[in-house]
């Protein structure tokens, strides 16, 4: 019997995400719509809806569904918004963001990972994500400001250029801390003031480069 991805996705949303407290219906609907199995390597498609991150090659991972949902909820984006993601990885997170915002710019430093992400996004029919190969710690000054900026790799501190590219009222979500454990932080810009909130502990692969760690 063929697996029914829609049923698996519905279970994922109900048991891994809603039951744990993510309540933004728009986020839940987006997670229910994006075909996560198209963003993992073919031999892992049968476990694509499990409650864990998965390897995607080049030492990188696709994040656990619950963490994608939490970060997306914290980012609080909506129609008309422009979003910047640092760390495209599989492209899955970008695909979820793309259902909520107008336009998503996503930066990936490893060309082969970016190429696969573009292919995954095409296969999933996502058209409003632009994948850029670059060092994401510098952001995308030419496209700034952004209403939401999401960093999906661990960083010891938020790179200054990213704060500079955040719109007034914009939110920046990032795992900040050491190499082995980080705190998921949300920063909200009000003029020159930045409000800071901590969600809790998380573990991400490292952000490489200036402001991050050495390769
Ligand atoms: N959001 C992804 C998961 C990201 S994994 C998903 O939904 O699948 C983190 C990614 O960040 C990896 O692909 C890694 O290569 C990338 N990365 C690390 N440092 C980076 C940098 N300085 N600039 C851009 N991408 C970076």
UniProtKB/TrEMBL annotation:
<keyword id="KW-0949">S-adenosyl-L-methionine</keyword>
<comment type="similarity">
    <text>Belongs to the methyltransferase superfamily. L-isoaspartyl/D-aspartyl protein methyltransferase family.</text>
</comment>
<feature type="active site">
    <location>
        <position position="63"/>
    </location>
</feature>
<dbReference type="InterPro" id="IPR029063">
    <property type="entry name" value="SAM-dependent_MTases_sf"/>
</dbReference>
<dbReference type="Pfam" id="PF01135">
    <property type="entry name" value="PCMT"/>
</dbReference>
<dbReference type="GO" id="GO:0004719">
    <property type="term" value="F:protein-L-isoaspartate (D-aspartate) O-methyltransferase activity"/>
</dbReference>
<keyword id="KW-0489">Methyltransferase</keyword>
<dbReference type="GO" id="GO:0032259">
    <property type="term" value="P:methylation"/>
</dbReference>
<protein>
    <recommendedName>
        <fullName>Protein-L-isoaspartate O-methyltransferase</fullName>
        <ecNumber>2.1.1.77</ecNumber>
    </recommendedName>
</protein>
<keyword id="KW-0808">Transferase</keyword>
<comment type="function">
    <text>Catalyzes the methyl esterification of L-isoaspartyl residues in peptides and proteins that result from spontaneous decomposition of normal L-aspartyl and L-asparaginyl residues. It plays a role in the repair and/or degradation of damaged proteins.</text>
</comment>
<keyword id="KW-0963">Cytoplasm</keyword>
<dbReference type="InterPro" id="IPR000682">
    <property type="entry name" value="PCMT"/>
</dbReference>
<dbReference type="GO" id="GO:0030091">
    <property type="term" value="P:protein repair"/>
</dbReference>
<dbReference type="GO" id="GO:0005737">
    <property type="term" value="C:cytoplasm"/>
</dbReference>
